[in-house]
Design brief:
Blueprint lengths: L1 H17 L16 H131 L5 H87 L6 H12 L18 H6 L16 H7 L12 H12 L14 H4 L21 E3 L5 E5 L1 E8 L5 E17 L5 E8 L3 E8 L5 E8 L3 E6 L5 E6 L4 E5 L5 E5 L6 E6 L5 E6 L4 E5 L5 E5 L6 E6 L5 E6 L4 E5 L5 E5 L6 E6 L4 E6 L4 E5 L5 E5 L6 E7 L4 E6 L3 E6 L5 E6 L6 H7 L1
Antiparallel strand pairs: 1-2, 2-3, 3-4, 4-5, 5-6, 6-7, 8-9, 9-10, 10-11, 12-13, 13-14, 14-15, 16-17, 17-18, 18-19, 20-21, 21-22, 22-23, 24-25, 25-26, 26-27
Helix pairs in contact: 1-2, 2-3, 4-7
């Protein structure tokens, strides 16, 4: 193709250039050209030459475009070929995986049979042992019965003989004695039969007991011999399963690269998690459509399936998001989001290889860094969490997408710990002051528990992501475990060193607002919006007792120093103290003007609290007497923390203000606004 185009261009150039001299060979005489004529012809020739060059350049450009298109088409074909090969390989490995699974299942059945046989032998042996023991006891009783019957028989016969001699005087007595003798004989016969049967049972049981060890030994030997074979098959299955998963992932990646597949976890699940779960979760499930999991989505709702794989235009889900019916009473999905959902359905509506169809969407979406915190705050935000460092020199407070750390002495900002969800609800320092635990969330979209290095703000662990906010975290007394509670109604317990989840307690009917450890770390207490507080075994997660006397949502919870009582606070404007043993209330502390949020019980028996009545207080645990109140806030006081060594109390309020007092005399030591860069005049100017 290039040779043909170049030849045509060359001919055009020659023709244009030769046009300058063609007139000089005419047969008719002509006048000598003037310089002007020559100049004109030269310019015309140059113009024709330029036009020819432009034509040549254009032809070359078109040729380059054709070659590039051909190259791209070739690359696309190669990618499609590769994707097809990978898909074929994945299918082949999948077939081998199915065969391996079938073989493994057969071996598992064999292993089960071995175990059942061994268990039966052991059960038979135990039964025989019990039978032997019982028979020996019965034999003893029956031998005594035979002896007694023999004695009765002898006595009856003697009585019969005596009665016979005195038949004339006592015929009736003789008849009765004879009857008694007959019964005694019958009793002796029955006793002897029972004794014989028992002896036979004893012999059988003894034989079983004697043979059982050898039979069990043989069964155990057979099981031990079979175990390597089973382990080999299991190992082979694991290898094939991994190969199959790797091939499936590779094939899917190739198809995604050429636009013939859409990743559910990366492109679609985040859309559903952010825009759909508020109405279609396990609790509300409008239209009985639960979109918390891939399995729930594919199951459909009360009207049946909401999508048909490969047919986006015919899927109800696409129709509803396209016309704005979903999400209901909210901004519609963007065109890009609608296009992503439709293309996912058009390309098969499959789940990414290796992911669990029953896992929550929030758990399978990629973990991305949270948005950056604003360098300067335009408005203050509520301070929903405060915590003293272990030495009491620093105070951590909640911020917007961050945790702010201040110097307690002068209220100046020390550092900012970022990469957290929109709202921070609770913060706790570890006992050594090196780790900060953060409970945060973006309402109705995301909840998270993270651990940070206090020194440099580095993320140490992202323990969990839930579908809604996490409200509370608490280190165990020994610092080895971390408990948390949130809007998903669950309490989770993690091992701090390994970051692994140890317990998942789902016992509440509504948000878990607070969690607390008993002083010995053996129990966990909770506060919930379901109007109850509960105590759980911290090892097993078993519910031990429930307290429901608040009658309103419960916000704060703590244990007494001896662990025998729990102290709770709530929307009923009271603090209640009750026994762990029987959930009976000991006393109630009133006098609050509004909801009582956080509480903290000290080792010396004081209860610190904060309330929506704009005040923090301290009471005596033993009798409920108020010691003092801490004034100064102009809005709801959401959060507080007490530092025993320095005897300082800190509290944060809805208007962004943080205040620190001397707990002994109530004197305010420092106050500051937890809103970096914000100046009060900004609000006035905005109004």
């Amino acid at each position: 193709m290039r040779v043909s185009l170049n030849l045509v261009a060359a001919v055009l150039v020659v023709a244009l250039l030769t046009g300058l001299t063609t007139t000089s060979f005419a047969d008719e005489p002509v006048a000598a050209p003037t310089p002007a004529d020559l100049q004109k012809k030269v310019e015309e020739a140059r113009a024709r030459q330029k036009a020819a060059q432009e034509a040549l350049d254009k032809a070359n450009a078109e040729l380059a475009g054709v070659e590039q298109a051909l190259k791209e088409q070739t690359q696309a074909l190669e990618k499609e070929k590769k994707a097809a090969e990978l898909a074929a390989q994945a299918e082949e490995v999948k077939t081998r995986e199915a065969a391996a699974a079938k073989e493994l299942e057969a071996k598992q059945q064999s292993l089960k049979a071995f175990n059942e046989a061994l268990a039966k032998l052991k059960a038979d042996e135990a039964k025989a042992q019990n039978t032997l023991k019982q028979v020996e006891e019965d034999l003893k009783k029956q031998a005594e019965a035979v002896k007694a019957a023999q004695t009765g028989k002898d006595a009856a016969e003697a009585a019969a003989a005596a009665a016979k001699k005195a038949a004339e005087e006592a015929q009736a007595k003789a008849a009765a004695a004879a009857e008694a003798a007959a019964k005694a004989v019958q009793a002796l016969t029955e006793s002897q039969a029972a004794l014989t049967k028992s002896e036979q049972l004893k012999a059988g049981a003894a034989d079983t007991v004697a043979k059982a060890p050898d039979a069990a030994k043989k069964a155990e030997a057979d099981l031990a011999a079979f175990k390597p074979e089973f382990d080999k098959v299991q190992e082979q299955f694991a290898v094939v399963s991994k190969e199959s998963l790797d091939k499936q992932k590779a094939a899917q990646s190739a198809l995604i690269e050429i636009g013939k597949l859409v990743s559910f976890s990366e492109k679609v699940a985040p859309i559903f998690a952010q825009r759909c779960l508020a109405c279609h979760n396990a609790r509300t499930a409008k239209g009985r459509l639960n979109m918390e999991t891939f399995a729930g989505l594919m199951k459909g709702g009360e009207s049946g399936a909401v999508l048909e794989a490969g047919k986006g235009d015919e899927s109800t889900l696409v129709a509803l998001i396209s016309d704005g019916s979903m999400p209901k009473e909210a901004d519609p999905l963007t065109p890009d989001q609608i296009a992503a959902v439709k293309k996912w359905i058009d390309t098969g509506a499959i789940l990414d290889a290796g992911l669990d169809a029953g896992a929550q969407l929030i758990a399978i979406t990629p973990k991305l860094p949270q948005p950056k915190a604003p360098e300067l705050y335009r408005i203050p935000i509520p301070v929903t969490a405060v915590a003293f460092s272990s030495d009491g020199s620093q105070l951590a407070t909640s911020g917007y997408h961050e945790v702010l750390v201040y110097n307690v002495a002068d209220g100046k900002q020390v550092s900012r710990i970022t990469n957290v969800a929109e709202r921070v609800y609770d913060v706790k320092f570890s006992a050594d002051g090196k780790t900060l635990a953060v409970a945060a969330g973006t309402p109705a979209q995301l909840g998270e528990i993270k651990l940070f290095n206090v020194a440099d703000g580095a993320l140490l662990a992202d323990l969990v992501r839930t579908a809604d906010s996490v409200f509370s975290v608490a280190f165990s007394p020994d610092g080895t475990r971390l408990a948390a509670g949130g809007a998903d109604r669950a309490i989770r317990v993690y091992d701090v060193a390994s970051h692994k989840e140890q317990l998942l307690i789902e016992d509440h009917a509504d948000w878990v607002m607070g969690v607390a450890w008993s002083p010995d770390g053996s129990k966990l207490a909770s506060a919930s919006r379901d109007k109850t507080s509960k105590v759980f075994d911290a090892k097993t997660g078993d519910s031990l007792v429930t307290f429901n006397s608040h009658g309103e949502p419960v916000f704060g919870v703590s244990f007494s120093p001896d662990g025998a009582q729990v102290v709770t606070s709530g929307a009923d404007k009271q603090i209640r103290i009750w026994n762990v043993a029987d959930a009976q209330q000991v006393r109630a502390i009133a006098g609050f003007g509004a909801d009582v949020f956080r509480i903290e019980v000290t080792a010396d028996g004081q209860i610190f609290s904060c309330s929506a009545d704009k005040t923090a207080r301290v009471h005596v645990l033993a009798d409920g007497k108020e010691i003092r109140s801490f004034a100064g806030h102009n809005d709801w006081v959401y959060s507080l923390d007490y530092h025993p060594a320095t005897k300082k109390l800190a509290a944060g309020a809805y208007d962004g203000q943080v205040r620190v007092w001397n707990a002994d005399d109530g004197k305010e030591l420092v106050g500051f606004l937890a809103a970096p860069g914000f100046k009060p005049e900004q609000t006035a100017a905005a109004k």
